[in-house]
Design a protein that fits this description.
The chain is α+β, with helices and mostly antiparallel strands and 142 residues long. The protein folds into two domains: 8-43; 48-141, Rieske Iron-sulfur Protein (3-layer Sandwich), CATH 2.102.10.10. Helices cover 21% and strands 30% of the residues. It has one helix spanning 9-38; strands spanning 48-53, 61-63, 67-71, 76-80, 91-93, 98-100, 107-108, 114-116, 125-130, 136-141. The strands form two sheets. A six-stranded antiparallel beta sheet has the order 1-10-9-4-3-2, with no helix packed on it. The mean pLDDT is 83. Bound molecules: FE2/S2 (inorganic) cluster. FE2/S2 (inorganic) cluster (FES) binds next to loops.
Length: 142
């Protein structure tokens, strides 16, 4: 035969206050979420794959809103068109052979290295793959 011992009243009070404390902590964390986003905490972006149709010849390029694709005799590569200084969209100076920012005139090589500041970081480079059996290139924007 088992007997149940009634719990003392202070036990129930302690349990209720513990639950209340946990709810306050969870609520506080939820309220902090927008603040964390403001100070730079970001959920990583999903990579996006862009198809580019056509067969590249040596030293050709294509320009997209987000990136540029270049070729030489041995390689094909893509670089971001977003300036690493403050984010303006870069222009390709074909005659001069570099990318230039219209905002503060940073310059980058076609491979994305900094030629001239104020930007100090190189451009993002994106993976370029060829789709099997077609003249389509797949550029993975990260
Ligand atoms: S935003 Fe490009 S140089 Fe400032």
């Amino acid at each position: 035969m088992t007997t149940t011992v009634p719990r003392p009243q202070h036990y129930q009070l302690r349990s209720t206050s513990r639950l209340r404390r946990r709810l306050i902590i969870v609520g506080g964390l939820l309220m902090l979420w927008p603040l964390l986003r403001l100070i730079g905490f970001q959920v990583p972006k999903k990579p996006r794959v862009v198809e580019v149709a056509g067969k590249f010849q040596n030293n050709q390029f294509i320009s997209n809103e987000d990136f540029m694709v270049f070729t030489d005799a041995h390689d094909i590569w893509a670089v971001s068109r977003t300036c690493t200084h403050l984010g303006c969209r870069l222009n390709f100076k074909e005659k001069e052979g570099y990318l230039e920012c219209p905002c503060h005139q940073s310059r980058f090589t076609l491979r994305g290295e900094v030629l001239h500041g104020p930007a100090t970081e190189p451009l993002a480079r994106y993976e370029v793959e060829t789709a099997e059996g077609s003249d389509t290139y797949l550029i993975t924007i990260t």
